[in-house]
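User: What would this chain look like folded?
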Amino acid sequence: MNMNTDSSCSILEFKDIQEKQEQVRTAFSDLLGTNGGVALLPPVPDQKSLTSNGYSRAILPSVNEALLLRDLLVKEDGKRLFLPLIRDNKVLAVLVLESREKLIPLPDYFKRTLLTTADLLLDNLFLRKSEKLDTKTGLTRFEYFTKKLQSLLPETLSAKKSNQSHGTFEHKDRIPGIILLAFRTVPKKEYPLNFWDASWKDLVMTGRFLAKNLPDNCTGTILSQGMLAVLWPDGNGAKARAWAENFVNLLKEHFPRLSSGGNTGNPHGALVRFPYDFYDYFKSGLPGLDRNDGNDFSGYIFGRLWQLLDITITTQNKAVWSWENLRHLGIVPDASSPFFSKINDFLVPDKTFAVLAMKYTGDMVLGDGEAFYCFLTKTARDNLEPEAFVDWYDGETMIVIIQGKDRGYIEHFSQHLLDVVEKDKGEGLNIGAAFHPFIDFRPEDAFLNALKALVHAELLGQHAFVTADAVTFNVSGDNFFNQGKFILAMEEYKKGLMIDPQNVNILNSLAVCHGELGNLKEAEDTFLKVLKLEPENFMACFNLGCLQIRSGEIAKAQETLENAVHLNPDSAETHFYLGKILKEKEKTRDVIDHLHKAVSLKPDWELARRLLAECYMDCGNKKKAAENYRKIVCLNPKDAPSLDALGCIYGEDQRDLEIGISLCRQAVELEPQNQDFRMHLAENLIKAGDLEGAGKILKPLLEKGEKNEKVIKLKEAIDKSLCSLCPL
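Assistant: Here's the prediction, encoded as structure tokens.
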């Protein structure tokens, strides 16, 4: 199946035109000068559609003829016209146009008017629908997918509360709610991306497959990092699981390559239910969400999906995992753990408090761990009032909660604890702190914010104290980003911007997340905001240029990347992408300058060096081209394109022909299905007089029925030469 990410799939259907049939009728009635003389039929009309439009089955031969011609057909003495509506080579409907006057012969200008009107109508429908649908896959764009999810959350909470009050909330399969499913289909891609390479082909193919198999009333979207997601709105867990398991099996059947090689666990799925799988976050079982705002909790739902996928990626005994499966296995806590129950019981409503999370990462003699934890617990309690909360969250992290004290008290206590530990045990303790109230964070966020501040402190080195701030959420977002969890990363960056709205580092990271998720307009707006705040911000300038390449705005991208080179002349990536743009404009000298700079900055960058070699070939400098191809082969002896290119260069000199044949043969052995590699090897063998060997190399291509004219002509020339050499 030959698909790439540049091609689009048909997202229009008959029902889309049917919904706008009044507009269609009006447009064509005005052209024909008649009222009610326009009928809309599906591509395969049934009796109901014929009867509703006042026709019998006698009209079907004319409909079929028009479909066969795929063009306007005039019948019934010129008073009835059949016009197939076609988009992306797909027949969507057939218009039957009734005219008061005979239209035989049909004037060319009138035919063009009818066809143009049909195209404009379909273009209009396509543009309206493509605002919400990805034209590459036919799935909903991620932006609208999340809006749909967020719009359902308040309804779900309202229904849940209503059912609780009526005592109908006993059985989990009858809990009102929604289900979100995710499927990992392909492994995580490496960076930096080559935006000209169809690196997401497998994901696009599986996305199209999902669009064709999506159940009614469900919404699907395509995520980066090889994932698909489905929103199942009716809360029927058994039905959703059965469909998901069947879909995973269908993926394995139709795309066997996804589960071959090193792709362990692919494809596989995860399923979470809201609110059923989220009671452990809150003492009452529910978050305090505004009924009109579902933004808060969508990030948590995606977070659990990714956690499920990460935990189960190497587990083969299930096609689709649910959060409940992990509870049964003891991998995640069941409902509210005793630790969180103790915290909830300790906190006094509406009272200010601070949470401290601390961990010792210094050197420790084996066996001293338990003694140190006792020492740290005693030191904390000795310096706190009796009502403070002190307990161990896990085997390494101690949690302290202090109520009713100001920041000065918390900072003084933390510094005293650091001093005592340093004096007794040496440096190695790190402390992260979070306060409530703090901006718009909820009380239950303080615990997680303290843990994030602890991670931030550990980055600064041993013996650090950090209060959760904008940088803390930048660090947390970067951790999610590096795992490919862009939605969760975006949530963290937004929290950082709540604290520091003009933090250019966080804004830049947020824009990159938008780009990874396909929200190109939001990404561009955010990069431009960074450049408005800080015009010489290189990363924002470079990232904006890459985004413009991705959006097809090549002229803008060139200008932006030229500015980025001015801001940072030592960025290999900027020189590379600017070189790619100039190569398409055939500015060879400028291309070579930029690519030469790129490989001088990153000598091991095979992709840049290969492009440089191709440019040298284009301008006839085969010596320089061969030099760069040889360096690539030294870096990667199994780089088939470079072996093939070197083989072609050596094959032009009779003295080096044997080397050329050897190199081309290695390329064919590495990629036996590549037609060009086989042809280049065959050409070198012909130069060496080995006609029979050349024929054998081309034979597999001909047996597969390849239509490549060059292959066919080359084989015919070989056969003719062999015949002339045969004795009579």
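The chain has five domains: 14-130, 142-329, 340-468, 569-633, 637-728. If you want, I can go into more detail on any region.
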